[in-house]
From TrEMBL, chain A:
Native source organism of the sequence: Nesterenkonia sedimenti
UniProt keyword terms in alphabetical order: ATP-binding, Nucleotide-binding, Transport
UniProt-recorded name of the protein: ABC transporter ATP-binding protein
Keyword Nucleotide-binding attached: yes
An example Gene Ontology molecular-function term: ATP binding
Matching Pfam families: ABC_tran, TOBE_2
From TrEMBL, chain B:
Organism listed in the record: Nesterenkonia sedimenti
Name under which the protein is recorded: ABC transporter permease
PANTHER family (alphabetical): INNER MEMBRANE ABC TRANSPORTER PERMEASE PROTEIN YDCU-RELATED, INNER MEMBRANE ABC TRANSPORTER PERMEASE PROTEIN YDCU-RELATED-RELATED
Source taxon at top rank: Bacteria
Family, similarity comment: Belongs to the binding-protein-dependent transport system permease family. CysTW subfamily.
Transmembrane segments: 21-42, 81-103, 115-134, 170-192, 213-238, 272-292
CDD domains found in the cross-reference section: TM_PBP2
Length: 375, 301
């Protein structure tokens, strides 16, 4: 199977529905063959963006390029782009094989049926070729939808929350399968999802979207390690964000002061390097230690925040999640690996420790609550 | 150890009781069918075999097994049967051609505009609010020789001078088409209305142009609606009486309904009328069964 993927370029795409701006001046370049995830909460414009790439919606302004070709004005059926729909949208009156062969037949490919059979082999459903979609389970339908899209060797394959309807176990399995299939066919995948874990495990580049704009774009580990906005810090995993003042700067390192304590912050990890900023640290990068006892790993380059009190403990097996209230700073979330059978209980007095190189700095006017999903 | 799995006598009694309740609920419908369908059909079939005793007065018949009535009726009126089914077929096709786009417009194109949809639905159903006879009668005015339609068509040279539309097969078929149009449109609308519009998008996504998507996706998926609409149009149209009487002539527009009427009320030939009715019923039954077998789409959910 030859790689058929092409670059996808969006240039200043805007989509308005009446007064509502779903997508706001969005630009994007996805190199050929990438597995690219558009991640964001519902209503952030990610599905609308996908529909504009598919040609199911047309942008109010801006241009869409596939490869070198400007496809902005073309209709869906004229684009070498296929979609795996959220609800699969399999044709209920056609057999599985006819569903998969549908696109090839419209393109008048001579060996449409043979290719469709091969695609069903790829998703391991060849034995169900003569069934109707309604006779298949959700996971099987999902794979048919994928085969129906992949078989056309599109330049770009769009996945609109394709795993949303599956249960957790099946979803994990499909994530792996999707990744394998993408490696095999070499098509450019654009995956839309609101599940940050799914985006991080599958995609090699993630764009976090919020309110019609892209907040940040990059490989999952970079986004996680160094979020540039409070929204990304909170939406992609969890973060502890707090306000701090830059008291000193020696070029590479900043000194921050907050609630009577100080910590260092690498200047290269800060969006803003003067005045009041918002500092952040991931929960698993904090070590909670009994008050007055530094953890064994702590040394130079570590910061200590004293005066914490454990307010809640949730045990999840591999780790325990603590909520720790710190005087003058608010609640901190700490993930501790369960290396020992003893942990803290509610009411324990603890100190928080972190390695200063793990801290990141955001703009001082950042809304520390942005991107926290309401449950 | 299996006590928990066994059903107690009490449970069994409860189930039986529930079974009886179900039967009780079916009873009214069953009685209705027996009294108003099974008995009349049986009496019609037996009446068609009655004989007229030698020298009996008009309208006096006695029970018999006279199958000759069927051959006599069919040899006289076979052409009327053909005409009836021909008219019904043309009217059904015409109603489908007119009704489908209407249903499609309201159900698919105007999706997400409930106000406009509601308004157009009312317009489709509105004819039912006025009297059936009045509506047929108004076609006589519309198609009248001095009427607007004929004179306009003549002026535009679409029709030659002096053409008549009243009392022609055209008038009868037009009347039937119009009369049964809502019965065609509404089932198709109901079907298209609940069709998943993402399937249409999927068609476009898979390289099918608008018309290909329609032919390959929308149309096959609306087959149940088309089936219901065509049956609801064809069956009453085949037995139509009013349109033929009011819009036709007595020469080349006579339909079976009219013949049955005249046999019954004018010739007082009850067995003849019953035989014609039986044949009409059987033919419709066969046609419908063949049609449903050929195009029936049980598999579509």
């Amino acid at each position: 199977m030859a790689a058929s993927g092409k670059d996808l370029v969006l240039e200043g795409i805007t989509k308005r529905f009446g007064d509502y701006t779903a997508v706001d001046d969005l630009s994007l370049h996805v190199p050929a063959g990438r597995f690219f995830a558009l991640l964001g909460p519902s209503g952030c414009g990610k599905s609308t963006t996908l529909r504009m790439i598919a040609g199911l919606e047309h942008p109010t302004s801006g241009r869409v390029y596939i490869g070198d070709e400007d496809v902005t004005a073309t209709k869906a059926h004229q684009r070498e782009v296929n979609t795996v729909f959220q609800s699969y949208a399999l044709f209920p009156h056609l057999s599985i094989l006819e569903n998969v062969a549908f696109g090839l037949k419209r393109k008048k490919v001579p060996d449409a049926v043979e290719q469709a059979k091969a695609a069903l082999e790829l998703v391991e459903l060849a034995h169900l070729a003569q069934r109707k979609p309604a006779q298949l389970s959700g996971g099987q339908q999902q794979r048919v939808a994928l085969a129906r899209a992949v078989v056309n060797r599109p330049h770009v394959l769009l996945l609109d929350e394709p795993l949303g309807a599956l249960d957790m176990k099946l979803r994990r399995q499909m994530q792996t399968e999707l990744k394998t299939i993408q490696d095999e066919v070499g098509v450019t995948f654009i995956h839309v999802t609101h599940d940050q874990e799914e985006a991080m495990t599958m995609a090699d580049t993630v764009a976090v979207m919020n309110a019609g704009r892209i907040e940040q774009i990059g490989p999952p580990d970079e986004l996680y390690d160094l979020p540039a906005t409070a929204f990304v810090a909170n939406f992609l995993g969890k973060s502890n964000l707090f306000e701090a003042t830059v008291t000193e700067s020696n070029g590479d390192w900043l000194s921050l002061s907050f609630a009577g304590t100080t910590t260092g912050l690498a200047a290269s990890r800060a969006v803003q390097t003067t005045g009041t900023i918002v500092a952040g640290i991931r929960p698993e990068k904090i070590i909670a230690a009994p008050a007055g006892q530094p953890p064994a790993s702590a040394g130079s380059g570590w910061a200590k925040v004293p005066g914490g009190r454990v307010t809640s403990v949730s045990y999840t097996g591999v780790s325990t999640e603590y909520e720790i209230a710190v005087q003058g700073l608010g609640e901190f979330t700490v993930f501790a690996q369960n290396l020992h059978s003893t942990g803290f209980t509610e009411g324990d007095q603890v100190d928080l420790w972190w390695e200063e190189s793990n801290l990141f700095g955001l703009a001082g006017d950042a809304d520390t609550e942005a991107g926290i999903e309401e449950v | 150890m299996s006590t928990a799995v066994q059903t107690s006598a009490e449970e069994k009694r409860a189930w039986r009781l529930r079974g009886r309740m179900g039967m009780l609920l079916v009873l009214p419908g069953f009685l209705f069918i027996v009294v108003f369908f099974a008995i009349p059909v049986f009496s019609m079939l037996s009446m068609s075999l009655y004989t007229q005793p030698e020298g009996a007065a008009t309208g006096v018949f006695e029970p018999g097994l006279n199958f000759g009535t069927y051959s006599a009726m069919m040899s006289t009126y076979w052409d009327t049967f053909i005409r009836s089914f021909g008219f019904a077929l043309i009217a059904t096709v015409a109603a489908l051609i007119i009704g489908y786009p209407m249903a499609y417009l309201v159900a698919v194109r105007l999706r997400g505009r409930p106000l406009l949809q509601g308004l157009l639905l009312v317009v489709i159903i509105a004819p039912f609010f006025s009297s059936f006879i009045l509506r047929v009668q108004s076609w006589r005015f519309i198609l009248a020789d001095e009427g607007f339609v004929v004179s306009t068509l003549e002026t535009l040279s679409i029709l030659p001078e002096g053409t008549r539309l009243t009392a022609t097969p055209f008038a009868v078929v037009a009347g039937m088409t119009y009369l049964y149009l809502p019965l065609m449109t509404l089932p198709i609308y109901a079907n298209l209305e609940r069709m998943d519009s993402r399937l249409i998008e999927a068609g476009g996504d898979l390289y099918a142009s608008g018309s290909q998507t329609f032919m390959r996706v929308t149309l096959p998926l609306s087959m149940p609606g088309i089936m219901a609409g065509t049956l609801l149009t064809f069956i009453p149209a085949a037995g139509d009486y009013v349109n033929a009487v009011m819009l036709g002539n007595n020469v080349n527009t006579t339909m079976v309904g009219q013949v049955i009427d005249s046999r019954f009320f004018q010739s007082v030939d009850y067995p003849g009328a019953a035989a014609l009715s039986s044949v009409l019923m059987v033919i419709i039954l066969i046609v419908v069964m063949a049609y449903v077998r050929r195009f029936g789409t049980k598999e579509i959910v």
